[in-house]
């Protein structure tokens, strides 16, 4: 009605009346707005439109109308219309009056939605998207005028203020100058609203329903306003303007002070920008209080665990950069005031990334620091490694210490490495974590050697690619020494190697981790092999501790127990996962069996280490040497494991699943037994090698302990099984026979001391002989293999031939009856009988090689008759002068006796054998048919030696890059090489060589050189094919061919490496190519009177019997190296013959001669010649 009246009489109505009407309608509209009457609100807007259209601004701009308009703008349906009316008013002549009225509403006690509308109208018209250009009012003025709205307690008002600020910054942020101060003031004032919880909307009022959800976003919008300002500070992406162009022209310090105020709500990127800005003031060139600023930065952004991890890492990076800038200037101040206080407990930080980064920073700074602050940093790592409650922090700290040690190895001050070295040795012994102990001992393993000038060496593994083998890169430190007083300089320090020795020895007896145990053993092995590093170590004390550890069976005991427990738990876990139920009673037995396997293996490693200490004999006291010997002797005192038979089938009532379970259990138990037997065999092999070396080094002490050794062999290791017909372990029995044979070679009087024995000790000597002979006899009569029988025969022959006449008769009475009464005689048994029978009354002078020249002369005689008689062949012959001879050929000996000229040979035969003078035949004498065939057979027999013969190749390697041509062309050699050859055997002219020649040319042509190297004892002959001796006048190619023809066909090669380079297991050492060379024995001279020996086998150890006394890598004194190498070559050659027995039957020479004699007796016996022909022949 008012609208209609005013439209009809607008010229007649007074303006005051119109204003009164407008105020009245505004009050009515406010009432309708409160109750949600939208129609009334729309009619009121039409009224205001008429007022505006008729330029009645005085009525439209009253406080009541402006307040109503500010309220209606909050209604979604009327907001656009309301803004259109207000924009018209703000664009008109009374625009400033309208603006003043709107600002006045902010100071009046109006409802919050009215204040919100006022803020909206002011902001939108001043800098919003529909800004009124005619309003020429500065932004600062408007911002100051809006300050009363900031003090409003209503969230919707504050929310609109924030939105208004956002509009200003988004549109005109890069043009704002002093306005930023007001904006920052707004944000400071509004910060308490960040912690206000959003209000629940009031469902009773329309106004509340319209704006009730706004406070939910208040904190986010307030933070977005700050981020808009911060974003202007960052370079704009994809902009043509240079990066140095600043879009933000306010005060940076005020901006980031505000960011720091809002830090707990800011995103990580913004906080990172704050840290970067604060970092600019943390350098000496930026501010005099830079150190305080740096301290505050670390306190704020690193020390607090509530800060995001990326920010904390950024703060650490700032600290790192500052330290780099202050290097050599004031880094000590940074370390004392900032670094140490903030990082000394970083190992206990709750975040792993922070722990890792902090510890890495400590290591990095320690690598670069040049002052004494290094030790403070090392102490920080030490505390982290020992006290941190996080295992990963301990590991990180240990990695840092090892890195520092390697980094400072070649630099000064050398005391730094000494400090870390002491810490590492302490961790090896005392740290609770096995991983930490492993890391420490692994680092120490790299620095457990020194060069000849006692400078410490650091070895590191380098891998160029995944498919390439690793190689060691060795660095020598000019400042770290292994020996005190080796270089008197202030910059030189001595590493406490004795502490490392004690730590390693402690670890091998107490370490629970098998991996760490093996590393500790490797450390000791490397140190012993290197020798220089042990210059300041009391070797007697070291060996005594090692002996105690091995004697008490503590060597690896803890590691074996732990590893067996782990394996047992893993097996049970796998069994449970596969739904297999095992017998609970069998589990402890299997675990105990596996524990026994491991302890046996570890004990063998301990004995290997003791054997390696043999090179220190000159430094050991007699008491320590005797303890070492007793340790090896006591290791023989055990009974080998015997495989128990198991029932072939199970009860019929068992289910199929239970059958599979029981079968798996039986297979597992059998595998454990096999593993234990293999471990015991390796243990006995090591012990026999050790005793073999002791026989060369300590012959008198070995002789004294021989009864104990013999008792352990016969009654423990090789005790008969229940039925008495078998052996507990064939390999162990063979090893014991090899040991006895070695004793008989190295200690010729061990088994029989009758020549020096008195009547009082004869019984003792006799007892040892009897036990040895009985053991060899049992192995010969009941062998488990041809190899065992061959060894037993060689032992029996050696015992018998070394005995005096008095002892031989006793041994023959003990042995012969048992050999002759064997139900099933083998060729070797017959050979033993023949040997004893032919050597029983043979004097020592006759124990020489068969006289090949004398047999050749006999072959030229006119043979009268030959007979086969009891495993021998007897021949009567005459020479050109009419002299008569009797030649007897046995498997073990051949001899010719001249007869008196007046004696009739047949008369002698008749008198000796009771032959019928008419038919010259008896029951025991079988005449042989004369002829060319018999002549050839006897010639072959005469050329077959009865001694056990071996041929061994010897090569001289002048340098590590030598080719096969170089090895065959080299002549001569060093003085130590020649001394080594003299120890192997005797150098004799080949054309004067009598007996076995190994295929060399012994004629006057000298096609294989002038001299040969020969070794002979009572039953063994060895011909060494020495490449440097085989020089002739032939062409170079012919000489090479001849050398390779001999050496290339030898099973065993001895290579003398006359250079200093140490070879690892994977290194390729120059050698000859060929089908054989199954065993290579490398001999390398070291400084002093020592040699490094190394034995390599081409074939797997499962196919080749173990041999000794040398095996693997050993260090031996010069006085025994030739003997040890020769004995090893002899036993290795016999083992190689076992490997090739499928192609070449394993037959001893004396056995082969017996076979030839038997074949001749069978083949050439005359069965057809009548008796009168016999007489006429005579």
UniProtKB/TrEMBL annotation:
It comes from the Eukaryota. One of its GO terms (molecular function) is GTPase activator activity. Keywords: GTPase activation. One of its GO terms (cellular component) is cytoplasm. The keyword Metal-binding does not apply. It holds the Pfam family Rap_GAP. InterPro entries: ARM-like, ARM-type_fold, Rap/Ran-GAP_sf, Rap/Ran_GAP_dom, Tuberin/Ral-act_asu, Tuberin_N. GO terms for biological process: regulation of small GTPase mediated signal transduction. Residues 938-1168 form the Rap-GAP domain. This is Rap-GAP domain-containing protein. It comes from Aphanomyces invadans.
